[in-house]
Amino acid sequence: MADSLVDTAAEPRLRAVRTDTEQKVSRWSELAETLEKHRGKKLVVVLVGYPDPDNIGSGLALQFLARQYDIDTALLSFHEVSHQENRALVKQLELDLWLYDERTDLSEFEIYALVDTQRTEATPIEAELRKKALVAVVDHHKRCNDLEAEFIDVREDAGSTCGIFAEYLEAAVPEGLDSNEPDHVKLATALMHGIRADTVAFLEACQQDYAAAAYLWPAVDQALLRKISAQSLSPAVMDMIQSALERRRVYDNFLFSDVGFVRKENRDGIPQAADFLLTRAGIDTVLVFGVVNGRSIEGSLRTRSDTVNPDAFLKKAFGIDEEKGSHYGGGNVRDKGAFQIPIGFLAQHNDREQLYRLACEIIHEKFLEAIGQEADAMG
Q: Rounded mean pLDDT of 193-197?
């Protein structure tokens, strides 16, 4: 009976002209050529948004590769690491992240690169970056149509940006990373954690991610990786999850909730609350938000729906920041997205509760419009 399910008359699929190995070497060769062109310069790798395993690991890999061309590289972030696993990653691997403040001087850096993102509009250095050469953009999110850089590798079908960088490493160091070299172990462990985090422990991994893991595995510190991945939730994050549960509102298979005022160092509890609520039976899309540091409304969207595109959903729901010319929200095409809306002048309001109620009403109304519900469905 099973034989009848196979079309033996079908023509065999045509194989690609180039092998996977040739493709890997080709992409690495292009990046290597770009790095060679800038030998001896100083490079700043811009980590947009809150540092996470995928952009940290990717930045570390680019720093490692650039070092082979005498390029001094700094990893610049704009937010303190807040997620408990990410803090453990940075601390345990002794990673050197440069935190931006008003005194940050980028004048010595002639070139910059973007990893795990394609945009810099949300950063306070966008104007300064325009004076520098964008040498590389490596990402696995939806491609921006107007993207310009010397080297571009954007793969929407990749599970992680760390997986792409592991591919470069395999072409650059075909003999494999050395488990006796501390820098190699640090890099392999960071990349493996980035792949694991962005593919939901390989449940959403693609072939490339598995191939990357196979290459990295011999040099990974397994005990340290387990320690990083097994960090406990902080009391603040647990309280945020409880608040999200208590304030949830359900509309068919959509769930909307909020977590109140959130301190900046705990803002990663928002996506964690969204992840938790997505486990509720009968729900396939969740949006959770909070007011971070009294200055911005920040939220996360999680979905397992076949029809909800997080990037399109959030851009439609919250629109464009006319001043910056960029959307307030966005995400990947599969399962997650985020948004950030500055409160601006209203942050000076003396009545915090009234301010929060106003934020709730606005976000709730936009959410209902995006899912086709009437605004008076609130209750």
A: 91
For 68-80, the pLDDT digits (tens) are: 999 999 999 887 7
CA quadruple 83, 84, 87, 93: dihedral sign: negative
What is the separation of C-alpha 348 from the centre of its chain, rounded to a whole number of angstroms? 31
Element containing residue 139 per DSSP (H, E) = strand 133-139
C-beta of residue 373 within 8 angstroms of C-beta of residue 251:
yes
Measured torsion, CA atoms of residues 15, 16, 22, 25, in degrees rounded to the nearest 10: -140
pLDDT confidence of 366, banded at 50, 70, 90?
Answer: very high
Q: What is the DSSP letter of 38?
A: T
Q: How far apart are CA 149 and CA 38, in angstroms?
A: 14
Ordered domains of the chain (ranges, CATH)? 15-229 (3.90.1640.10), 235-377 (3.10.310.40)
Long-range own/partner contacts, residues 210-216 (CB < 8 A, 24 or more apart): 211/20, 211/163, 211/166, 211/167, 211/170, 212/160, 212/162, 212/163, 212/166, 212/167, 212/170, 213/166, 215/166, 215/169, 215/170, 215/176, 216/166, 216/169, 216/177, 216/188, 216/191, 216/192
pLDDT digits (tens, 9 = 90+) for 2-45: 333 333 333 333 333 344 666 667 899 999 999 999 999 999 99
Query: Is residue 378 scored above 50 in pLDDT?
Result: no
DSSP single-letter state for residue 231 = P
Q: Mapping DSSP to helix (H, G, I), strand (E, B) and coil, where does residue 375 land?
A: helix
The two structure tokens encoding residue 107: 């004048």
Average pLDDT over residues 273-280: 92
Residue from 148, 151, 129 nearest 36 by CA:
151
Separation CA 299–CA 138 (nearest Å): 25
In the beta sheet, which residues pair with residue 298? 290, 340
Model confidence, pTM = 0.72
Output the six-digit token pair for 311. Answer: 């990037």
Backbone angles phi, psi at 138, to 5 degrees: -125, 125
